[in-house]
Amino acid sequence: MASTTDDADDVVVRIRYHRLPDRLDIFRQRLVHRTPDVVVTLLQDTPMPRPLRVDGRTVLEDGAPAIWFTFPGAWHDVGRFHTPDGRFTGFYANILTPVRFLGPDEWETTDLFLDVFIDTAGGVHLLDEDELEAGLRDGAIAPDLAASARREADRLLRLARLGHWPPAVVRAWTLQRARAGRGVSR
Questions:
Q1: How far are the Cα atoms of 46, 81, 134 from residue 120, in angstroms, in the given order?
Q2: Sign of torsion, CA 25 26 31 35?
Q3: Residue 185: what pLDDT?
Q4: Do the domain assignments include residue 136?
Q5: What is the pLDDT of residue 10?
Q6: Euclidean distance between CA atoms 120 and 122, whole angstroms
Q7: Residue whose C-alpha is closest to residue 86's, from 44, 117, 58
Q8: In the chain, which stretches have pLDDT less than 50?
């Protein structure tokens, strides 16, 4: 994992992303950096059936690039979102089960409904509480798993409001840097 490789453009990871109760999305993203603490991937053209809006502002839409940060053992991942023309729109965390690595370039996780977004002005937003409540009501998510999701979201919200989240590695990987693939290690 510590050696550098020059063929990073050829390395694609496959992410099995479960959405409760029974949906599975498979994402293929270009690997741009890997250490024991974080895997950074680039999704050059995000497939979106409808734009993601926060407080009336579009923060991610079909065809827009996103840089994804997967932290082994964490109950979230982080996306660095952009407009289709590359303008940064904010940081987004999916609250999810810790990633289970199936191999070096394939993993899976389950979305736990809640999301945290930090906009470019520093505003911190908790998203999709209604989806979590509906999942609980419908039996799509167990109460203990929902409680874990809330704890993680609360932790990220608290850290973000103190200016301690997202971590420095997320701030360091700009879209330009990810597209260039600099710092690729395996």
A1: 20, 10, 30
A2: positive
A3: 44
A4: yes
A5: 75
A6: 5
A7: 44
A8: 1-8, 183-186
Q: Tell if the pTM clears 0.90, that is, is over it.
A: yes
Token pair for residue 2?
């510590």
Closest CA to 72 of 42, 41, 43, 97: 97
Number of domains in the chain: 1
Residue 3 lies in a domain: no
DSSP string, 3-47: SB-S-GGG-EEEEEEEETTTEEEEEEEEEEEE-SS-EEEEESS--
Q: Do the domain assignments include residue 144?
A: yes
Outline where DSSP puts E strands in 36-104: 39-43, 52-54, 57-60, 66-70, 76-82, 88-96, 100-103
Q: What is the CATH number of the domain that holds 117?
A: 2.40.380.10
Contact 85, 73 (CB under 8 A): no
Integer-rounded Cα radius of gyration of the chain: 16
Sign of CA dihedral 50, 55, 58, 62: negative
Bridge partners (DSSP) of residue 28 are 14
Does 2 fall in a domain? no
3-class state of residue 87 by DSSP = coil
Burial 87-122 (b: 16+ CB within 10 A, else e): eebbbbbbbbbebeeeeebebbbbbbbbbbbbbeee
The predicted structure's pLDDT at residue 3: 30
Classify the phi-psi angles of 73: left when phi > 0, otherwise alpha if psi is within -120 to 50, otherwise beta.
left
